[in-house]
Design goal:
The complex is a heterodimer of chains A (336) and B (173). By secondary structure, chain A is mainly α. Chain A has 9 helices and 2 strands, in the order αββαααααααα. Chain A has one domain (2-317). Chain A is 70% helix and 3% strand. Chain A has a two-stranded antiparallel ribbon. In chain A, a hairpin with a 2-residue loop joins β1 (20-25) and β2. In chain A, α5 (162-193) packs parallel to α8. Chain A starts with a helix and ends in a 19-residue tail after the last helix. With 173 residues, chain B is mostly helical. Chain B has 3 helices and no strands. Chain B has helices at 16-36, 38-148, 154-172. In chain B, α2 (38-148) crosses α3 (154-172). The radius of gyration of chain B is 64 Å and the shape is rod-shaped. Classes of the chains: A mainly alpha (336), B mainly alpha (173). Chains A and B meet through α1, α2, α3, α4 and α5 of A and α1 and α2 of B.
């Protein structure tokens, strides 16, 4: 046990980043993030299906009570859905776009939220603890020494893996450009990449800037989703790394030859701080899921042939004259 | 408590298999949720929204009807008050007129009675005076005849009566 505690003090990041699990398919080792993705998706779908059943209108025999959502979780999900739809997405995207993209955006939000929340539960560490308690600590210590995968089947934060966040960002990327080609068409999208209709059909003297804008826009095509991925990854990794560092203080004391009581005291104080950080992590889990979804919505709406007000887009991309963007502010969300 | 350190790979490393898994699982999740969850939730929320809006509209209609009914009631109340006031005024006027008529008729009858009574009193007095005069004349004639010892003829009698009457009248009034 002491060996393991000492090993824990070596590299807190090892508890945060993705690693291989004990499962493999045809010789291919599955990573914890892959298993978390599947489990997270199943949990997300199951919970949302149960919530949907409770939110939907009941039989008329229930009277007015058939319109009431039953269950705390369903009520929370309903509040979140209503808030995101009416207070965030509809004002930003407009009614038409919000209606079209709501399923994707809400799915992304709840999926990422589920993965983030899973990261707050130490499934992997509990399995490792059980593994040690079952008398495998010597082998586990050897695992540490030889950097072999521990006997962990599930756990970790999937969104703390760049591979996962890039995969999610790839979906946002496809959605953004699907929206662009659908609303603006190929010609409109190319004009957008070249600085907009006004610039392309404007004075010849200004054409010199078109290559520059084209390069910047092409870069933006990939930078925007990449920023989504890295932002989500960095927030998840940072929070969990902080937690791991706090928990590893005691092991560091032991490793430095300090007394046990000192290690215990430091671990106690660090544990108190870790609890407080956990609340912050809980908030960050919601916040990052929201930011990922919201920025995807913003990027989609920037590519829309919509007259619901995106002056920033007009200013940023010079689209003011070709009618791809509106002039004015978004309408407030209707009362639902 | 973190018990075991695993391999600390590069945080920025990208592996194809987890990336592909993320894309596939996320897409499957989006599709399943889009087919079976969001339509149900949206339908439930929309139905509740319609129900709430319908109830609000019904409540507003009921309130408008109640307000109209109250205004109609108040209007009728004011009208009834005005009608009652008019009727009271008319009744008072009629009563006053009847009282005035009754008073006038009573006064007229009273005056007539008084006039008739006065006339009857005058007639009675005149008759009494006439009777008194006649009786006095007879008495005077009788006395005079006794005094004179002779019978007074009609001519004397008449002259005597007339003189007595004159004297009586001048002394009695």
């Amino acid at each position: 046990m002491t060996t393991l505690l000492l090993a824990a003090g070596d590299n807190p990041l090892g508890h945060v980043l993705d690693r291989d699990s004990a499962l493999s398919i045809e010789g291919t080792r599955l990573t914890l993030s892959m298993i978390s993705l599947v489990v997270g998706a199943l949990v997300c779908i199951t919970v949302l299906m149960m919530a949907a059943r409770r939110i939907k209108t009941g039989p008329s025999s229930e009277g007015n009570a058939r319109f009431v959502t039953k269950g705390r979780i369903a009520q929370v999900i309903e509040v979140i859905v209503l808030g995101l739809r009416d207070q965030m997405l509809v004002p930003v995207m407009g009614e038409r776009l919000a209606k079209a993209w709501l399923p994707l955006l809400l799915s992304l939000f709840f999926f990422i939220l589920t993965l983030n929340l899973f990261g707050l539960i130490p499934f992997a560490d509990v399995q490792e603890m059980l593994h040690v308690m079952m008398g495998q600590h010597e082998k586990a210590a050897a695992d540490v020494a030889h950097a072999e995968p521990a006997a962990v089947f599930f756990g970790g934060t999937a969104t703390a893996s760049l591979s996962v966040t890039l995969g999610l960002a790839a979906i946002s990327f496809c959605a953004i450009w699907w929206q662009s080609f659908r609303d603006l068409g190929v010609k409109g999208t190319l004009e957008h990449l070249c600085g907009g209709h006004d610039l392309v059909h404007g004075p010849i003297g200004l054409w010199a800037v078109i290559p520059i804008i084209f390069v910047v826009e092409i870069g933006g095509m990939f930078i925007k989703p990449a920023a989504l991925a890295i932002r989500l990854l960095a927030n998840m990794v940072a929070g969990h790394t902080l937690m791991a560092v706090l928990f590893s203080f005691g092991a560091m004391v032991l490793k430095a030859g300090g007394p046990t009581w000192a290690a215990g005291s430091i671990t106690l104080v660090a544990g108190i701080f870790a609890v407080l950080i956990t609340f912050l992590e809980l908030f960050v889990a919601f916040l990052q899921a929201f930011i990922f979804m919201f920025l995807t919505a913003v990027f989609i709406s920037l590519m829309a042939h919509e007259d619901h007000g995106h002056e920033e887009h007009a200013h940023d991309h010079g689209h003011g004259g070709h009618g791809h963007v509106g002039h004015g502010h978004a309408e407030p969300a209707p009362a639902h | 408590m973190f018990l075991l350190a695993a391999d600390a790979s590069n945080p920025m490393s990208v592996q194809i298999l987890p990336l592909a898994t993320a894309v596939v699982v996320a897409l499957v999740t989006v599709i399943v949720l889009s087919l079976f969850v969001w339509p149900t939730i949206a339908k439930g929320l929309d139905e509740r929204n319609e129900k709430i809006l319908g109830e609000i509209k019904a409540a507003e209609d009921a309130r408008a009807n109640a307000k109209a009914a109250q205004e109609e009631f108040e209007r009728k109340l004011v009208q009834a008050q005005q009608d009652a006031d008019t009727m009271i005024k008319e009744a008072r006027a009629q009563a006053q007129k009847a009282a005035d008529d009754l008073r006038a008729r009573s006064e007229a009858e009273l005056a007539e009675l008084k006039k008739r009574a006065n006339a009857e009193m005058d007639a009675a007095r005149r008759q009494a005076v006439a009777e008194l005069e006649a009786h006095a004349a007879e008495l005077a004639v009788s006395v005079a005849g006794k005094i004179l010892g002779r019978t007074i003829d009609a001519k004397d009698q008449k002259a005597l009566v007339e003189q007595s009457i004159k004297e009586f009248a001048s002394s009695g009034r």
